[in-house]
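Changelog-adjacent note: as of this version, every example in the card shows the full chain rather than a window. The one below runs 362 residues end to end.
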Amino acid sequence: MRIFTLALCCAFTFLTSSLSAQTRDIKNVVVFQQEGRFAGWPANFGIWSWDNEILVGFTDGAHQKNPKGGHDISSEDPSITRQARSLDGGETWTIEDKVYTLDENQSHELTEPIDFSNPDIAINLKGGDIFYSLDRGKTWAGPYALPTFGRPKLLSRTDYIIEGPRQVTAFTAASKQNGKEGQPLCMRTTDGGLTWNLVGWIMEEPAQDYGYAIMPATVALNENSYLSIIRRGGRIDGEKQWWLETFLSPDKGKSWYELKDETIHNAGNPATLTRLDDNRLAMAYGVRRAPYGIRAKVSDDNGQTWGRELILRADSASWDIGYPRTVKRPDGKLVTIYYYHTAGQDLRFIGATIWDPDNVKY
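Full-length structure tokens:
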């Protein structure tokens, strides 16, 4: 009897220790929260990091309940682009205004090449413009106009890979030919941003009546290959649906093909991709269907397949959340930043989850 009791106690201790180990390395912190304000959409701006220093952009607007069920932000009061900065790997944050060295409301012509090898550089793609900073986002130069490649406009968010002192490959979207969003593309500069060339369209143009493919999240697999996760919307069996699709380019962005088995139906949210220290890939995304929250997956074969869905948090009060961006800390942990709200809380705040991909429950 004592042996059985001892064995039972040991089994219980092992089980509780295992469960504790699964969740001990996940921590949620508030980046920005203010009464009466709606903070949102980090993926619309971008995230940058230098060791334990992290910078992320977001929208700060007046909270106003939307009677039509859309975003609860006032369309009458002006919204502000703000930045949050952490110097300790995402544990604590300070809020900054975004400082421009030029008129932010007027596109300019870039006349001197950008030095992409500067260790303090940050690049921000926004709509049809590019901004850059050489002092870790303390000041921003721009906007400088980007080409539209024969389309009415670009719909850029920040997604780029620095490949040399004068070379950057960026992944963005242009409007469809009818002016609606959107079709993703790969473009490149080899002269420090003075000119940009279209490398290739990531997929076919979506349906003109209703369908979009926007907000790529991309990593380089090797010197010739890219993996990009695209936010999709369209009609499936006659009904509007929203999901994520994965595309692979084997030839430096010229041609792309879909990994059809890796579709994620998350009801409308972009993904974020991060390379881990052991060369695996981590993907995080918002889920706008109940139970609402932030989830993740890990791939050990360069995105050909993904493991089970990990729950970073599942305590959201509605669908109006997500738009995550992720960076990796020097200690290997990930910091995923998003907008969010919980039960009994109308305002939206910017939150961060600090997590270890090997210690998160399913």
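Structural remarks: The chain has one domain: 29-355.
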